[in-house]
Amino acid sequence: MAHLSHKHFNSYKEGVNLEFLRDYCIEHGETRLMKRGEVFEKAGEPSQLVAFVERGCFKYMVHNGEERKDYCTGFAFEGEFVADYPNCLSGKKSEVTIVAGTSCKVFQILGEELERLLDAEKSKDLRQTISDSLFSQIYAQYLDSYRMTTRERYKRLLFRCPELVQSVNLKDLASFLKVTPTTISNIRREITFG
Fold first, then answer.
1. Per-residue pLDDT for 112 more than 90?
2. How many other CB atoms sit within 10 Å of the CB of residue 35?
3. Do 10 and 85 meet the contact criterion of CB atoms below 8 Å apart?
4. What is the rounded CA–CA span in Å between residue 114 and residue 42?
5. pLDDT tens-place string over residues 18-64
6. Are strands 39-41 and 69-76 parallel, antiparallel or unpaired?
7. If we measure between CA atoms, which residue out of 49, 54, 110 comes closest to residue 83?
8. What's the pTM?
9. In 10 A of CB 163, how many CB atoms?
10. In what order do the strands lie in the sheet with 81-83?
11. What is the mean predicted confidence (pLDDT) over 160-186?
12. Measured distance CA(172)–CA(184) in Å, rounded
């Protein structure tokens, strides 16, 4: 299993001990091999799954009906979890389509299993901790889109997750940063050549 060399791409994991959940998924979950482009969860359908990603990466996508365009809103990499949290806990409609960005190997459980685990006495506070951490990550990402340039946000992503360049295509990375692929290409060239 690959480990990120710096911080995790998804900062919600920092300061939250999810080892028991990883172990539970590996020991009790269904092993699933997915091909690039295969859908893990689909927007508008009941969200039901949570998985520990052993290999590969996933992208979170939303669709803008008026523009008839899909946008990438996030990623899940090796050593992380993939789910439409908290919708997966109760089977609410998924807000995002989660797609395998590469070939992937995951250990998946039902969201209702996670719900039972989080309700267990020993992990009662974990639900709130996960929610607080996810909110903090999303809030910081939102604020960064205003307080940082695209170049700064791109460099920070590379610092947090150096293998991002190999794992994610230019179009999805540009969509995540809310710019054109040409902008990302120019930033890469600037960084590489000077």
1. yes
2. 10
3. no
4. 19
5. 888 999 999 999 999 999 999 999 999 999 999 999 999 899 999 99
6. unpaired
7. 49
8. 0.83
9. 15
10. 30-34, 104-110, 49-55, 81-83
11. 86
12. 11
Cβ contact 88:48 at 8 Å? yes
In terms of residues, how long is the chain?
194
Whether residue 37 contacts residue 90, with contact meaning beta carbons closer than 8 Å, is answered with: no
d(Cα 58, Cα 38) in Å, to the nearest integer?
10
Residue type, 95: E
In eight-state DSSP terms, residue 47 is P
Return the residue matching tokens 């690039």.
36
E strands within 23-103? 30-34, 39-41, 49-55, 58-64, 69-76, 81-83, 97-100
Query: Encoding tokens for residue 152?
Result: 């700064």
3-state DSSP assignment of residue 55: strand
Residue 2 tokens, joined: 């690959």
Q: At what angle do helices 181-193 and 170-177 cross, to 10 degrees?
A: 100
The encoded tokens of residue 80 equal: 């992380």
- Could you identify the residue written with the tokens 């395998």? 100
Q: Report the distance separating Cα 61 and Cα 16, nearest Å.
A: 25
Amino acid at the residue 191: I
